[in-house]
Amino acid sequence: MAIGEQGEGVGKGRSGRMRPAGARRGGGVAARTALSPQARWERLVMRRPGLALPRLQRIIERESEPPFQALLGAFFILERWGRGPELQRELERALNRAHQQRLREESSELSEALGRLHYQRGDYVQACNAWSEALELTGDATRWACLARIGLAQLCFALGDWARGGRMLDQAERHYPQLTQDAYLRAKIGLNRAVSLRATQSPQAAMARLEKARAAAREAGHLDYQAEAMWHHARCARDTAAAAEALALATQAESLARRCRYRWLQAQVLLLMSELLSGAEAVAPAEQALALGEALQSRAVQALAHGRLGQLMAEQGQLGPSWHHQQQRQRLEATLALLGQTELPARLEQLARFDAEPPQEEAPVASRHEAAAQAQALLQTIERMSQSTDEAERAGMLADALEGARRLVARLG
């Protein structure tokens, strides 16, 4: 995302890209000076999207061939608001133009953005194709290569291939030299790491990573990812049977997501709230989540919402509505399963060249951080066990500690 407007010290290059004089290509946000017009625009898009969007839309509307960066900036905003598909045709036309002009970097950046659009909708094969094209067109050290690898990691996680997804994140971190200065991408990687840790290790192991991701999101001024970190925190609390804490965190996350207009996250948090509530109270959040899923054209969100509503209707003895929702859930899940079990795994296998294991002596720092987080979670469990006077609770903690120790031994070999 690198947005500028003529008349504010920003030049227009041969490609239609708008950039300040002297801005370096490929480095993304962090490679530019903080006080440049470009950097001011990027900060505005991140922190004040409602102010930036009308200006970007004016640029797009007045040009027969809108500048690539104006399109990408507008898409960055509309994507979060659940309106990304509004720009799909414009982005595809811009990508064709970049291909015709043999602008590899611009083509890569546009392909990466289209990958995000396809992924949110549940079109996983198209997302995989777009992200792999982004990697093929650019060097490893660019910001959009880092973003494309994060996207491919998310696809691997969706298929349950946690090991390959983790390696994709390792490479996203390893190859992007500006990562330490790019708080937005550190937050994005941190959130995905936390998802992986929660699924493969424990909620406790995910917590340390979530705190770092939330701190990076605050540094970037990106409220969306702060809200997302809060949602993941709520899920971890639910997993540890802290239902009251989970509901409080989910309520805060939903409020912040609504304020940001981050509709995908709002739908996910509403589903969590419905799960934490019961009876009639649980119905409204699930219905709101379904409406958001339909507006987003997200098959995954719709399937989850239909499943929850089917369960709630059955509990209330409303068998007709329950049957309808379960049928809709099965239809959507079948579509997602077909995409996930046929073409997509084969496409991911073709990306082996982007999934090389690092040499042993270059093992990623992230793996050491994860081992440290795992050890810290184990220590916290033991400390709580030493303070507990409830025998049943102590027995449960002992089982958790033993399992955590086994995982740590397996990781360290």
UniProtKB/TrEMBL annotation:
Entry-linked SUPFAM superfamilies: TPR-like
Ranges for region Disordered: 1-31
Keyword Plastid included in the entry's annotation: no
TPR repeat spans: 108-141
InterPro entries: TPR-like_helical_dom_sf (IPR011990), TPR_rpt (IPR019734)
Residue ranges with Gly residues bias: 1-13
Domain of life: Bacteria
Keywords: TPR repeat
Record-given protein name: Tetratricopeptide repeat protein
Naturally occurring in which organism (per UniProt): Roseateles chitinivorans
